[in-house]
Design goal:
six-stranded antiparallel β-sheet, 16 strands, 544 residues, alpha/beta, single chain, 17% strand
């Protein structure tokens, strides 16, 4: 092995959670090493790749995987990094590079609603969280102040303090939805980590409408900013460091992380405390890869729960033509939603959901469709103008319940580094399908209120994936049914913590990033509190 490195804390993964955990630890005076599988990248590089891409609607086109740290891509052809075991395909997308997947996101930063923490107790489905809304509330606020979050106050998530800033200006199309749907539905601004005014050295949103795949001016927060903050605070970030195994000592404490660099030279990094902060697919993959004679099923896996309870937010949708010009494409891509079906007694019978309106420009998609249909010349211009001005889309964001049969395992296939690939076992359960069926009446009513014609429902049985990977490292109070406790500490290893959306025990109806980040910030506060208590106790003993 090429060299030996060591620090108080070893963080695996430089995404938004790993980097902000590292940032707090470094500010507290700890030595921190962050190991990131992928390369460094700049915003300028990403913007140039997007501008030059021939696949403008493929939001992964600016993020080609590195051969030494592959991630899933599906265009122009699938690279088969995430093996599909079925019965339903789980075409997850994520990015392995410094800063992680939030380089490429809609910047939704939702809190759960209060009852999301107790769905087993209240509705007899899923599981309860090992904490309450009130336990997490101050860490929601901390996450929002770091990222610069704004949103509507009436989304069902109570607050002790206001948002750091007011909402981004409402696009015209969303205003017309709000005005015309008011008799039946309250349309509210989405909760997003996007600046409406200069904040933390970053400018306000100027409406480029390319939030995905890349905000060209850093108006929305992302993990690249978090990684830079961690380094500025004193953390050492090693890029191109693909961790393939965690080692433990005879007592079961994690002793070292082994990683391959881009030339497949192996390195060993030792530390006192280890924090696995990759996503909900790569984190369980690493724990399973770290099997040993003492832990033959992988690390943190005495419960056999590592990789299980894979969840996301499937969506179905309706596209229609409004009876007035609304011109989607001015402002953020996903600015407004309806939240009235996020909670209620119906959850005992079917999935709750949000209804989310797109504001993505219709020009690219309509142009491709018309040309594929053989439409050219003046007719192309006429029909393109009509679609760009009138076309609207609404989708549901459906809850998936935890199911241990939905899981990530290791495949028999290996990647270019000789590491077993992750394999997804996934299905859409009846509970979620019934939520989809209930949402269809909302779709029809929304179209009716907008004077909609030419209604195009998504294909029956097809559920789009929203890339909100959770559940595979579920936290809980019982070591027999969970991987870690409410502070992210692995039940099986006292110096191993997990900071990932994978720890979320249920998916609820909201994008997983802020929930995962709030839990991670709570974890690091616990770690630092325990260290302070231990230092104080040691000091007191020495004095006595």
């Amino acid at each position: 092995m090429a060299d030996i490195l060591s620090a108080d804390f070893i963080v695996v993964g430089s995404g938004i959670m790993g980097s902000l955990v590292a940032h707090k630890l470094a500010l507290a005076g700890a030595s921190v090493i962050i190991l990131e599988a992928g390369p460094r990248v700049t915003r300028g590089e990403l913007v140039a790749r997007f501008r030059n891409s021939t696949r403008r609607s493929d939001w992964m086109s600016p993020y080609p995987p590195a051969s030494w740290a592959p991630h899933p891509v599906y265009q122009p052809e699938p690279n088969n990094h995430l093996i599909q075991a079925g019965p339903y395909p789980y075409a997850a997308e994520y990015i392995r590079q410094v800063g992680g997947t939030t380089w490429h996101w809609a910047a939704h930063a939702w809190r759960n609603v209060r009852n999301d923490f107790r769905i087993k107790s209240l509705y007899g489905v899923g599981v309860d969280w090992p904490m309450s809304y009130d336990d997490l509330e101050p860490f929601y606020q901390e996450a929002e102040e770091i990222m610069g979050v704004s949103g509507a106050p009436n989304t069902g998530s109570p607050r002790n303090k206001p948002f750091p800033m007011e909402s981004v200006a409402e696009p015209y199309a969303m205003r017309r939805l709000r005005e015309r749907l008011v008799s039946d539905y309250p349309v509210v601004s989405n909760t997003t980590a996007r600046n409406s005014r200069p904040y933390d050295g970053r400018p306000a949103c100027c409406g480029n409408n390319s939030c995905q795949p890349i905000c060209p001016i850093d108006a929305q927060y992302h993990g690249g900013l978090a990684a830079a903050a961690a380094e500025a605070a004193g953390a050492r970030l090693i890029a191109n460091a693909n961790v393939y195994k965690l080692e433990h000592d005879e007592k079961g404490r994690i002793a070292a992380a082994l990683y391959y660099d881009s030339d497949k030279a192996s390195h060993r990094v030792t530390g006192k405390t280890f924090i696995v902060a990759a996503n909900g697919i790569e984190s369980p993959r690493l724990l399973l890869l770290s099997a040993s004679d003492k832990f033959p099923n992988g690390l943190a896996n005495s419960s056999d729960m590592v990789g299980r309870n894979l969840m996301d937010h499937p969506s179905t949708s309706l596209t229609f033509d409004a009876d007035e010009d609304v011109w989607l494409g001015r402002g953020p891509q996903s600015p407004s939603s309806i939240n009235t079906m996020r909670d209620g007694a119906f959850r005992s019978e079917h999935a709750p959901y949000r209804l989310d309106f797109t504001n993505i420009s219709r020009v690219d998609g309509a142009t491709k469709s018309l040309i594929a249909a053989g439409v050219y010349g003046a007719e192309l211009e006429k029909r393109l103008r009509f679609s760009a001005a009138r076309e609207m889309n609404v989708k549901n964001v459906l809850e998936v319940l935890p199911d241990p049969e939905h899981r990530i395992t290791l495949s028999s296939e290996k990647d270019a580094m000789g590491i077993p690939k992750p394999e997804a076992h996934y299905a859409i359960a009846d509970y979620t399908v019934r939520g989809h069926e209930r949402s269809q009446q909302d779709f029809r009513r929304i179209a009716e209120l907008m004077g909609g014609t030419n209604l195009r429902f998504s294909k029956n049985g097809d559920f789009a994936n929203n890339q909100h990977i959770c559940g595979t490292l579920s936290m809980g109070s019982d070591p027999k049914t969970s991987v870690c406790d409410g502070y992210g500490r692995a039940h099986d290893h006292e110096n191993l913590f997990l900071a990932s959306t994978g720890v979320l025990p249920t998916a609820a109806t909201c994008n997983s990033t802020e929930n995962g980040l709030a839990v991670a910030l709570r974890s690091v506060a616990h770690i630092l509190g325990q260290q302070a208590a231990s230092t104080g106790a040691a000091g007191g003993a020495a004095k006595s």
